[in-house]
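Final report, closing paragraph on structural work. Over the funding period we assembled a curated collection of sequence-structure pairs, and we close with a single example.
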Amino acid sequence: MPFYTCALYLPSLTVSMTWVFRFFSRWPLPALHAIGAVLGWSVWLCSPAYRRNFRAQVSQAGLHFAQARPAIADAGRLVAELPRLWLRPHDQSCLPEVQVQGRQWVDAVRAQGRGVIFFSAHCGSFELAPQALAELYGPVTALYRPSRQPWLARLMLASRQRPGLSMAPASLAGIRQMLKALRSGGAVALLTDQVPPDGWGLWAPFFGKPAYSMTLAAKLALQSGAALIPVRTERLPGGRGYDLQFLPPVVGFQDVPAPDLMTAVTLVNQANEALILSLPGQYLWAYARYKQPRREASVPAAAS
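Its predicted structure, as stored:
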């Protein structure tokens, strides 16, 4: 379970978590990021299992610990900024706090009339990215899987369903919704390094080790001809905002035979690796990337 998700499961609190979110949503970003850094290091110091998993995955990626050390504090910043991101008024733009780079890659694809699959990893402010994408290139359709905590599920859906940003359920209907958007030249957003439920992925190399990997992004690209464009959203020091950068589209998909899903998924994983290595100090290294997938009651046929 990701660090930020663990921090939101706080059943011992007697006050309303919604009230807590509303309280912190009014705080300035520098203050939230300062509190978050303390939170990140507190979790690190209190959890031997967290430290082991963090170090093991840093080593698996071929990095020295010093290169990833800033990610300890940054994981806490991710948690601390969530109230502000989720409860920002729908008529208030997030773009004044965002520097945007690499728009030429998106503009070139859109000029060809092709759809765009924006994707990212558990790196930087991946919760901010869909909101910024909706303002820059909306309408954008994003995959949605509700939390098992009812209060959190309601809060997440209300915050993510914004003007220019629609949520597609993780179901056959949701997949059809995304495919329709792409075939009409639209855009979708996915977090492609997460472990999908059993039946939604396949085992493909990730930093040299087999990891159960999402097939959805690869299938959507193969079936629609859409371009896969990595998105990196870096937190700037001192709470000064964010740097959103579009990276060059993933190459090689035009040469992948449709049945060769392993090659296509591996290309997506390699793009995730490159994105993570470009910002190792803001990746959730303790995310259980190599865990066994959980079983679902049913799996949409288009996801298998």
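The chain has one domain: 3-303. The chain has a mean pLDDT of 88. We thank the funder for supporting this effort.
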